[in-house]
Specification:
By secondary structure, this protein is mainly α. It contains twelve helices and no strands. Helix 4 packs parallel to helix 6 and helix 6 runs antiparallel to helix 7. The longest helix is centred in the middle third of the chain and has 34 residues. The chain starts with a helix and ends in a 5-residue tail after the last helix. 26% of the residues are buried. The N terminus and C terminus are likely disordered.
Length: 337
C-alpha cells in the first residue's frame, strides 16, 4: 500500500466526502427537473415566435446544465461503484471531476453575461455608462474563473486541492461581488422606470423583490461554499454546495424570463374572479376611463417586454376563454341602443 493511501485512510470519511456529494447530486437532480419545467413553460408560451436569441440561450443553458449533472454523477459513480473498495483510487482526481468544474464556470459566468444583456436592454434611452461598467466587471470576474480552471488541471490528487484553495475563495468571492453588482444595477434601472401608475409600479416592485431575492439566494450559496471550504477543506461539503449553486443560477435566470408569464396568469385570475363578483351593471363612463387608462399605461409596460413577447400577446388575446366573451356579451346587453 502506497504512502499516499496510508496518509489518506485516517482522514477519509465517506459520509462527509462522497456521501455529502451524493446528497448534493440528488438535490441537484431535483433542481434540474425544475429547470426543465421552466424551460418548457417558456417554449410553450412563446411557440409562435420562431427561433430567437432567448430560445437559443435556454437551449445552450440546458445542454450545459445537463452535461454538468452528467459529469458529477459519473464522478461519484466512478469512486463508489466502478472502483468500489479500491483505496488507491481515492487519492486520484478523475477526469469528470475536473470537467464538471469547467462547466460550473461556463454556466455561472454565461448567466452573468445574459444578465448584462438584460441591463443593456433596460438602459435603452439612457446613459450607457452603467451597462458598460457592469460588463467590464463581469468580464474581469470571468477571468478569475479561467484561472481557477487552469489551477484545477494542475492538480492530480485531492491533496493538491488544498494548495489552490485560495483560488476557490477568490472565485467564489468574485461571483458574489458580480451578483451584488448585477442585482443593484437591475434594481436601479427598475426604480427609475416608475411611471406613477399603480399597476405598473406594482409590477416594478414585484420585479425588484424578485431580483433582490434571487441575487441574495445565489450570494448566500456562494458564501456558504466559501465558508465550508475554509472550515472543512478536507471534505466535499463545499463541492455539494457548489453543485446546487449552479442549478440555482440556471433556475433563477429561467424564472426571470418567465416572470411576465407568471404575472399575466395572476392578473388574468384576479380579473376573472373580479368580473364574476361585481354587479352586472353597465357603466359607460367607467368603461371609457378604463380604456383611456390602458392606452396611457401601454407604452410604459413595453419596457418590461423582450422581443419574444409580441407574438405571445397577439395569440393570447385571440385565444381568450369563451366564458370571458360570454360575460362581455351579457354586460353589453344592458347598454342602451
Amino acid at each position: 500500500m502506497s504512502s499516499s493511501v496510508q496518509d489518506l485512510i485516517p482522514q477519509l470519511n465517506i459520509e462527509t466526502t462522497f456521501g455529502a456529494l451524493f446528497i448534493g447530486i440528488n438535490i441537484a437532480a431535483i433542481l434540474f427537473g425544475l429547470n426543465n419545467v421552466q424551460a418548457l413553460i417558456y417554449f410553450q408560451t412563446h411557440r409562435g415566435t420562431g427561433m430567437t436569441f432567448y430560445k437559443l440561450a435556454i437551449i445552450w443553458l440546458w445542454i450545459l446544465d445537463a452535461l454538468h449533472l452528467t459529469f458529477i454523477v459519473h464522478c461519484v459513480y466512478y469512486y463508489l461503484v466502478i472502483k468500489y473498495a479500491n483505496l488507491n483510487v481515492f487519492t486520484e482526481i478523475v477526469w469528470s471531476f475536473k470537467l464538471q468544474i469547467v462547466f460550473e464556470v461556463f454556466i455561472i459566468y454565461g448567466i452573468h453575461l445574459l444578465y448584462v444583456y438584460h441591463i443593456w436592454l433596460f438602459s435603452q434611452g439612457r446613459s450607457r455608462i452603467l451597462p458598460i461598467a457592469v460588463a467590464i466587471i463581469t468580464t474581469l470576474t470571468s477571468a478569475v474563473g479561467i484561472v481557477l480552471i487552469w489551477a484545477i488541471y494542475q492538480c492530480h490528487v485531492f491533496s493538491d486541492l488544498l494548495k489552490i484553495e485560495w483560488f476557490t475563495f477568490i472565485t467564489l468571492g468574485t461571483i458574489t461581488f458580480a451578483d451584488v453588482v448585477i442585482a443593484s444595477s437591475l434594481c436601479y434601472l427598475l426604480t427609475t422606470s416608475r411611471t406613477g401608475f399603480s399597476g405598473t409600479d406594482s409590477l416594478i416592485t414585484k420585479l425588484m423583490v424578485y431580483v433582490i431575492s434571487t441575487g441574495c439566494l445565489t450570494s448566500v450559496f456562494s458564501m456558504a461554499a466559501m465558508i465550508t471550504c475554509a472550515v472543512m477543506p478536507t471534505n466535499f461539503i463545499f463541492l455539494a454546495v457548489e453543485v446546487l449553486l449552479v442549478k440555482l443560477y440556471v433556475n433563477s435566470y429561467l424564472a426571470l424570463l418567465n416572470a411576465r408569464y407568471y404575472g399575466q396568469v395572476s392578473a388574468d385570475t384576479n380579473n376573472y374572479y373580479s368580473s364574476h363578483n361585481r354587479h352586472e351593471v353597465y357603466r359607460p363612463e367607467l368603461h371609457i376611463r378604463a380604456l383611456e387608462g390602458g392606452e396611457l399605461r401601454a407604452p410604459r409596460r413595453d419596457v418590461f417586454k423582450h422581443p419574444d413577447d409580441e407574438a405571445v400577446d397577439r395569440s393570447r388575446y385571440v385565444k381568450r376563454p369563451i366564458a370571458a366573451i360570454t360575460d362581455t356579451v351579457e354586460m353589453n346587453s344592458f347598454s342602451p341602443v
